[in-house]
Amino acid sequence: RTDRTDFLPWGVEGGKPGTPTRNYLNPDIEPQELPGKYLTTLKQGDVYRMIQAGGGGYGDPLERDVYAVLDDVRQEKLTLDHVRREYGVVIDPGILELDLAATEKLREDMRIREGETGR
Fold first, then answer.
1. Is the dihedral of CA 114, 66, 18, 47 positive or negative?
2. Which residues form the Hydantoinase B/oxoprolinase domain (predicted)?
3. Structural domains counted in the chain
């Protein structure tokens, strides 16, 4: 039995919702996504994987300090794709350095898009 499969943990102060809990049977062989409330008997050799819900964010991700984001990338906590998509931060993949001009432009474009969609 797991929770937060349908209703995401909410963000506060402009933060985005967290990620949902996901349950899988044999995720690397013949993946079957399971619902949150599910009763079954596992057979020998079966693998059950649960990915726990992540908490909602705190604060507008486009206001996060770019150097803190860069530090998370260098520590391999976040991927280049994730920080570009969620934080609007552009990092040169070859040298892991910030592109401040591209970051400013991307964040501006993202704010315009969010204003249009009413995020």
1. positive
2. 2-61
3. 2
Written as one string, the DSSP assignment of the chain is ----SSSPPPPBTTPPP-PPPEEEESTTTS-EEE-SS----PPTT--EEEEPPPPPPBS-GGGS-HHHHHHHHHTTSS-HHHIIIII---EETTTTEE-HHHHHHHHHHHHHHHHHHT-
Question: Domain ends where: 36, 59, 82?
Answer: 59
Q: What are the residues facing 97 on neighbouring strands?
A: 92
The amino acid at 99: D
Question: Residue 71 is part of which domain span?
Answer: 61-117
pLDDT tens for 69-87 read 999 999 999 999 999 999 9
Task: Give the model's pLDDT for residue 114.
Answer: 84
- Dihedral angle computed from the Cα positions of residues 99, 54, 27 and 32, in that order, rounded to the nearest 10 degrees: -120
